[in-house]
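Quick illustration, no need to memorize.
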Amino acid sequence: MAAAPAVADDLDVLGQFLEQNFPTQQDALENFANSRLEAQALVAGPLLSSQSALILNNKTGEVLYQKNANSVRPIASISKLMSAMVVLDAKLDMDEMITITPAEIDRLKGTGSRLAIGTTMTRGEMLHLSLMSSENRATHALGRTYPGGMEAFVAAMNRKAQNLGMFSSRFYEPTGLDFRNVSTAHDLSRLVAAASKYPLIRSNSTSNYGSVFTPRGRQNYRNSNALVREGSWNIELQKTGYIRESGRSMVVKANVQNQPITIVLLNSPSSATRVNDARRIETWMVQRPS
């Protein structure tokens, strides 16, 4: 009756001997399983905080990754790309002087501005601050001084959207402060493609410094996008956006891993997660199979 435990002991010893001296099969299986999981993660796409996202290869038109890309969401200051195109399409005098008036005061969200009432600068300078620093008063002044006024300006924004095939998009004013300015990640990829054909939009949106004299003194401006401020990305065009209803959003046209891509990120929880999502995409582009 004492033989059974001896057999069990012998089996345990044999098992330990095999594990110590012939581990390759088990390790190979584990390595294979881990590599499969990593490969699946690369195929599935980056893990993003943004509620909607799109990554598009601009050269081939291939959608590399999408997440809720047809979900209609408020787009906040990304609206300013459409506003800029409407201004430039009208071929207005960029050297004409425009003055900030009480009409530019934000009565929707109550946001402030460093452009004091009475500040006067050229239309070109207004466009620069609108695109680079998302200056709402500058953008509003561009719409107010459009031929036919604000109503005609907003009508031109919506007409342009329809002409671009942005059929899920709608604009109610030029700044993006109104949460009814909505679009989808897919539509915004069309907006980016169209806006990037305007050299002034490309240069203004990626500029990193501006200075304006106001009744309060000189005001210095930087780019609203941390990726531009850091200078490590090769960015052709960008625009950030934020209101409470939209979360933190961003569109970027850039070269990443020698691929010309458009990135659309909508409704990220914070400025940090918005930028981190872009960096995760960069890492994913490095690791993904070509």
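The CA atoms of residues 158 and 258 lie 34 Å apart.
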